[in-house]
Amino acid sequence: MPFEENDGRGKDRPVLVVAREAAGTLLAVQLSSKRHDGDREWVPIGSGPWDRSGRDSWVAVDRVLRLHESGMRREACALDRMRFNLVVHRLRERYGWR
User: Which InterPro entries does the entry mention (predicted)?
Assistant: First the structure.
């Protein structure tokens, strides 16, 4: 998804897709390589192939984004089950999802 700065840089904000709704839209949360140690609104997921520089990443759980699949520009990789479950667990805690 585009960066919110909307400054014409053409950069995309990386997201982690966590669910698909019945209507076909995707639910996603924002990824960041900026450190968020100790912040409960961010889940540390370490490094992976989604960041070419190999930096550690964090997932924001304070805001869930609703996206259309056609708006996704590319898929970087799938998150391994253990890290994905950490994110889903925190989302369930925060929003009461089942």
Answer: PemK-like
